[in-house]
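User: Okay, second chain of the day. Same drill as before: sequence in, C-alpha cells out.
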Amino acid sequence: MTFRVCFVCTGNICRSPMAESVFRARVGEAGLLDRVEIDSAGTGGWHEGEAADPRTVSVLDEHGYGSDHVARRFQPSWFARLDLVIALDAGHLRALRRLAPTEEDARKVRLLRSFDPAAGDDLDVPDPYYGGRDGFEECLEMVEGASTGLLAAVRERLEGRAA
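Assistant: Same drill. C-alpha cells below.
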C-alpha cells in the first residue's frame, strides 16, 4: 500500500513545493519512494498552473533538491486518498480542517513543524513570498528540520501496513 502525504501552503509556489521537494529527497534516501507518494497544493488557486517561485527553485537547486513543480489548489475530495495533510502554518491548518468532510479527515491535518522537537511553540513556517532570499533560506532550514521527524512518523505508520 502507498502512504500519501500532501503539503499545503497558501499559493503552492513557495513553502509547500519546498517541503514537497525536501521530503521527497528524504523519502528517497530512506529507500521508501515506492511506498510513499508526496505532493503539494495551496489553500487558494491564485497561482494554479504556475511553476514554483524562482527564489524557491534557486534555493532548492543550490541545496541539491529537485524543483519540478506546477501549482494547484487543494480539493476537499483529496482527503479520501490522503493519509497526512501537512499545513505550513496555523492559518492553513484551520482552513484545511474546515474543508475536511469528516472528523477523521480533520485529524489527518498536522503542522509541519510539529514534527520538529527543536521548533518549540512556534510551529509556523513564515511566508517568504514578500521578503528577500533570506526568508527562503530560513524556510528551507525549517522544512529540513521537520522532515526528519516527519519521516520517522511516516515510517512508524508504514510498519503497520503491507508492502
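Helices lie at 15-29, 54-62, 90-99, 103-106, 133-159.

User: Thanks, on to the next one.
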